Amino acid sequence: MDKLTCIRTFIAVVEAGTFTSAAKSCGISKALVSKYVSALENDLNARLLQRTTRQVTITDSGALYYQRCKTLIQDLDDLDNSLKDAQENLRGLLKISAPVSFTEIKLMPVFQQFLIDHPLIRIQLDVSDHFVNLLDEQADIAIRIGQLEDSSLVMRKLTQIELILCASPDYLKIHGIPNHPDKLTEHTCFFDSNSRDEKRWSFMLDGRKHTVTPKCQLEINSARAIRELLVSHQGISMLPSFVIDKDIEEGRLVPLLETFQNPPLGVYAVYQHKKHLPAKIRLLIDTLADSFANE
User: Fold this and answer.
1) Residue 228 C-beta-side C-alpha neighbours within 13 Å
2) 162 touches 241 (CB < 8 A)
């Protein structure tokens, strides 16, 4: 027999004053009310109610049990209601801003599964490598890579990426392998103009930041377009790891100057308010964090 049902029935008897009134409020028979209360008393090995033909009186043990159960049942009902409210709020539009290549390679599989799991939610995705103002664009969430400057925003780290200097083996056979960042000026380089470093590449040299301005024959605001140039043996570039990981693993590209590489860049979900965050926004952020944690 369900103990929670027995407890709820016992509470109803105490508050109604009689088995008959409790049966009406619970929508069950008087006999079933009596059966539930008796089962609870047998389980506790304690008399909770004194019955006579005219009235029901709560015992001292029953009064103590009632007070504790009343609080527990109220807390349980509040929890159930809060979760139901959250589920009911998992609907409507989510406006998201995110970088182009990172969205295409890493985020789209997560968004696709999220929409399958939550069919009442819609996503409006603004894909751009320019940082947007969440207030101006009315975005719910922005995915940002690298150092964040706006301290008024709340951020949650999702994962991290590396910027990897690389070239194809065929290019390196012809032009040689640079053994120092300063040697990059002797090579054909391609620069991702989405970078915030303004046509400079940074390296760590003897514990200090060392900046190089390579001779860039072509600038493109697309990491994936530059990747195509590299696998075609055209030159050297510094690209996010998620764009070229598979190429390095399969030998199409080779990492360079690994001992000079900078620390990884953080990837963050950024939003405006930490308190009273809508359930659908919090759910998507949690989903993104979980997806990267499982990689």
Assistant:
1) 5
2) yes
Q: How far apart are CA 25 and CA 10, in angstroms?
A: 12
Phi, psi of 220 (to 5 degrees): -135, 140
- Note if the pTM is more than 0.85: no
Pairwise CA distance, residues 276 & 282, whole Å: 10
- The DSSP symbol for 86 reads H
Q: What is d(CA 99, CA 264) in angstroms, rounded to the nearest whole number?
A: 17
Q: How confident is the model at residue 221 (pLDDT cuts 50, 70, 90)?
A: confident
What's the whole-number mean pLDDT along residues 107-128? 94
| Rounded-to-10 torsion of CA 178, 183, 189, 193 | 120
Between the CA atoms of 124, 126, 127 and 131, what dihedral angle is there, to the nearest 10 degrees?
A: -140
Torsion-angle region of residue 219: left (phi > 0), alpha (psi -120 to 50) or beta? beta
CA 230 – CA 138 distance, rounded (Å):
37
The pLDDT of residue 137 is 64
pLDDT at 87 over 60: no
Domains, the chain, in order of start with CATH, read 3-88 (1.10.10.10), 92-159+266-293 (3.40.190.10), 163-263 (3.40.190.10)
- 3-state DSSP assignment of residue 234: coil
Cβ of 61: how many Cβ atoms within 10 Å?
14
User: Measured between alpha carbons, how far is 144 from 129 in angstroms, rounded to an integer?
Assistant: 9
Amino acid at 243: V
